[in-house]
Fold each of these.
Amino acid sequence: MAYATYSDVQARMSHTMSTSEQTICTNLLDDAAIMIDNYNKDADSNNKKVVSIRMVMRSMSSSSDGIPIGATQGSQAGLGYSESWTVGTGAVGELYLGKEDKKLLGVSNKIGASSPLEALTCKEVLI
């Protein structure tokens, strides 16, 4: 069960989706819901909707100025034309949960985010 609709995603995008894009978006929203539920099925439903939309937007779109969503750095050249972008977490087109998404779902500090040594006091470490 998806937590958002293609209309929700389209409302945040800079263009109107074609029929085929609507179908792809709907399928991606279903996939996103499964991923979200695997992280925290009990998360707030409004947060699940926001995270679903963010995940699908990263997968489907790039910004109107030609910079891919998720790009952490880029470069352009001049007359010989060259362009390169470094994309952060996840491959372009892949659904993934970003750091802020995990915070919205309430799992940011629960999955591999701390070391067991952090619970020890200085005295215990010295012994």
Amino acid sequence: MFSSNDKISSRQIKRLLIFDLFGAGSLLLPSQLAKSGNGIGIWSILAGMTFAYAYLWLLHTCSNRTASDYMEYLKTGWGNLTARLLYLCYAVLSLAVCAWAAKVLSGLVCDSLLDAREFPTALLVILLLAVYGASAGMEARARVYELLFWVLVLPLVVMLLLCVRQVQVMQWFPLLGDADPISWSWFWSGTWQCFAAFLPLTFLLFLVPHVQDKKKAGRAAMGAVLYNGVALVIIYLILLGIFGSGALEKEQYPIITLMGMVKIPGEFIKRLDAVMVGGWFLTLYALIGTALYYGMVIARRALTKWDGSCGSKADRKGKNIWYAVITVLVYAIAYGFYRMPQLQMAAAKVFYLVGVPFVVLIPVISLFLCKKEKELYDAE
């Protein structure tokens, strides 16, 4: 029997994070890293992992000082009004990430399975599914991804093993890129992008009320970063060894292209790429659901007196209204990204230049400002 206490285990946290981290990173990072020149992209992934671990330590320190939830912790140092404004900024970032992931997934589905003209319908269906999943609550989502984990991991491992024989190791070299300062500028750019791919870890700050054991949750998050980083390294090496850096950087979704090249003995599946899209559908869907869920929760906490509880009928009704409003906003942003690619590019620049420093600096500053919550937590 499953419990229904709105709490999730460390194993469920790890698998949720792996789903959130893997989809977008494995789709988009390889072609971006190939621009740095051959194997230097490996070092970008490893450097991004190192920064992710430092960031995870920062989040874990903040969560250990929190007796109730992150907003109450921020209030002790920043004040009520500023804490709500910070929460609103977190909500905007969550909704932007949700819209971007929904646009990527809708485009992927249309390119692989449907037609570009059906993008608005595909986007609507995906967001409705995301609302359905997010409204079920954290515990229900954790159970689903826990059950789906090996169903997705094992086929991917088999497909990658079938690709290994096509890898040309010489295409990995030189491991330090070209003897050109431009290569190292791409290294730092790739490192920043790799670190940004680990930023769904930020949601751990808002997961505190749902965690059974904070110490185990921290170890679970460390495991998720390790598994995802190793998977990115392996995928990048395979793609680089097959395509080469020149061809790899021109591919939009190189891992999907690779899946279409795999030959299964007997060839009983003709469109393997279409089948494997299902794996990335679920990982991107997980990120969309996570960002939508936290976007709703954070925005509602920032703009109302709601304390996070959903026990009463009025609270559940309010949650449904908020989900409806948030979904409309996300659909409008995602469709805007689709119709105006330059808008998405501008949003990406804002995210890298403003959003990433924001989610890093606020916990850092809070460590010095917010101490009262730690005293209350220790007193308990």
Amino acid sequence: MKKVISTLIISAAAIIVGYGALALPFHLFTNLTGMQMRILFVAEIITYFAIFSAFFLIKESRCEKKKKERELRERHNRRVSERQNELKGINLNGLDIAA
């Protein structure tokens, strides 16, 4: 349920922002000169690129964090199993003294 609500909120926000991004140049078309329109267009492209880069970097950092946690967990499990194997093999006068 939480995922559905968050998806609806993100979709609504994307629609509103998209409409605003497309409507702004059309409403300003009659008021701005050609050079001002080019500057506005370049500013929009830079803004889109910055937002895309931010989302991409956040996603990559999350993936990297998960990978690091998985490696640490695997290393811990390997050390635990090695320690258990070492304790199993302790024999003293034919008796296994491992707990």
Amino acid sequence: MKKAFKIIICTLLISLVFSSCEKTSKRINDLTIVQALGIDTKESKTNISLQYLNLSENSGSTEQLQGNVTSVANGMGENISSAIFNTSKTVSKDVFFGQNKIVILGCEWAQSNVDSGIDYLLKSKDSRPDVLLAIGYPDAKEIVKSKENSAQIPAENIFSLIKLGESNGHAPSVTVADILNLYNDETSDIFFPVLKAEKDNVKCIGTAVFSLDKYAVFLNEEETMGFLAVKNKFESGILTFEAKELGKVSAEITSLSAKKSVQIKNGKPILNIKIKTDILINESEKTIKKPLSESDCKAVQKACEAKLKKLCESTVKKCFENKSDPFMSARYLCIKDSALYNSMKDNWRDNLRNIEVKAEVKSSLQRISNNTA
């Protein structure tokens, strides 16, 4: 713990030395060093929650540092900037965002104010392109307040939760830069991981997808896995499905790659998704006392491919039916047929319903023992 905290302090010092803001001349103890920013709606105003390092209460030696070393401050204003300014009045030290790790948008706030949030992220001197973004359900304050099982810096745990969640199929990892790039693309739509505080920690519960600046649809945990697979972000995870004569099977996806392209048929675009994956059989309902035969393995492969194909197709269609394209499908159409793209782009979101979606999945079953093959 002592070594970890020294690393944190060194990182902060380096950031302060190389930061271009005026606060670089001040000591760490003279700053309110923000770790997480939460944005909610309260009484028709913007309510801000800041999780920050509270080093003043841990001014002794590093051996004495135990448990949480952060505090949370709150304030309200007409918009994000004024709310942060009002919050800064309660902490007595200049607010420093150079170490901020994550911005949480409250569910209610995000559904009606996401455009103003993007404007703040685009223009504010405190915004950084590598900061993660997420939506907190039902609000951001509960996420920012979470103690994460008495972690020293809870925001770091939440940051790691999202980063790991993307590779394991639980949540998309979205930065400020990602959102700004999508938002500035006239035919692409933004999306956020959705977090929920439960008891003393935070979990990922799905993905919120937008159409332009309006909330469009929620993807549950399983659909989020399909979403990440289509976007070629999903690396490994557990997929459960029914296999012929084997009952319910759980397979571990150990690697996955996806490629997207568009073809034209009878003047209409088809979005093709080709997926290659490696799988391991973790558990099967009806083969406890006997090893899996060759035909059993083929049945598992076939069922796994069918499950993943259906999951990917249904997730894309769900987004398209709600007038949202977080997959940048228009770019693939433009590459294939620029004339057709030009005829559709002005009403792109209305035209999404007319795009056929086809997924093709090919798997390779990894054999690790005589009990699985």
